[in-house]
Amino acid sequence: MKQLIVHRDGQPVAVAARIVSWLLVALLTAALFSFAFSRLQYGWEWDAIWQYRQKFLKGWLMTVIISAAALVGSLVIGLLTALARRSSLLPLRYSALLYVETIRGTPLLVQILILFYVVANAFGVENRYVVGIITLSLFAGAYLAEMIRSGIDSIRDSQLESARAIGLTRSQTYRYVIFPQVVRQLIPPLTGQFASIIKDSSLLSIIAVSEFTLNAQEVNAFTYSTLESYLPLAVGYLLLTLPISLISRTLERRFYFAT
Amino acid sequence: MQLEFCGLSKQFGEHQALSDVTLTIPEFQALAIIGPSGGGKTTLLRLIAGLEIPEKGHLSINSRRLEVHEEALLAHRRTVGTVFQAYNLFPHLTALENVVLPLVKVHGLSAREALDTAGALFERFQLAGHAQRRPAELSGGQQQRVAIVRAIAIKPRFLLFDEPTSALDPEMTAEVLDFIMELRGEGRDLIIVTHNMGFAREVSDQCLFIADGEVQESGHSSELFRSPHTPSLVNFLAKVLRY
Lengths: 259, 243
What we know:
The structure holds 2 protein chains of 2 kinds. By secondary structure, chain A is mainly alpha-helical.
């Protein structure tokens, strides 16, 4: 029992203690959920769902594709916006500010509806997948812009002075001094953001983008097996988000250096 | 080297950091700039370094007037080695990479040449053992020595030091000041802003005393310290040399 208590951070933990602790957690969680489900008195019908496994898989893959595209899009938008926020041209700086505050101040659901039914319609964009990716990119881009901006702001003035003194140009200073340090700081929030994009992409179901959540909803409509449709949904999202946070921790260690 | 200021003025918001400095400093190898904090020493050094643009007036180095548009200042900064109080080094790069970066990116050396140049300097100044360490793993004195190595690696026309030891404890201060004395011994031209009067006196041949944004007194260092003329310098020296 004593081995399961950590007295200070960084203290080495025995493998056995880890395994026992994890088993304990799994046991408690299993107990909680078995109790909850046993009270439900639910007639499970997994057979009905199994027929639609292809639909789940297709939806899941679509979610992966949309999220990956939106991640790239949001990185580009976030970086450009962060630079625009520091631009010496005031109108550019204010447009970036307006964009960031509007996006961060409104629900994603509302943005999806307005962008799809109003903006995309006006510009004649009919592909709902393209609209979905653009909307998600704009949404996550606003948050990324703020992270990148605060990362840039966290670089001490003395370093910018040193960069000037050794004769680096402004773009060289960004390239060799600021970005390498910002990237290191950004890895944890960035992976968190990627996990958010994956989960947020489920909202695209309201404009009938045939991704994981919409497909699960459809299966539910065909089979009336609500829990059997939605439990795989939870597992499917965890399959994506858990590895991401593991990768994030590994990368964080690799980029770590004291300042 | 030789310096000339002509009506040089610099303002930060309401604060007049330097007002109308006009002076010719005769040929020198090492110039010390002394004076109370906030008096304008650092501002003058930063103008010489090409890090600030004066509101009025201009300065000439070796009879060549320093143009004050950004392009000319960038070119100027690339020929001068400047070392600040602290945090000169980039924390994400090793000591060696810190020295190599400007050689490759600013001065166009190949990676090979830059590593050879930097490596030789690290050897020569007993820093070889620290080459692969990041700044956070070095003592304050070692960090400053690496910063000085970075400044001399580019073969600058002259070196500028802005209170290079004021963030260090006495032992490290000595380590850095020894290094600067050694560079002076090699015949390098340098200008140093310092609070360390003993060092200012020993290292420099010319000295400037700046207070309230004006050069109050200047002249040959040994004379200036032995028999200060102006009451403000007499007061200042009495104060800083009391303990």
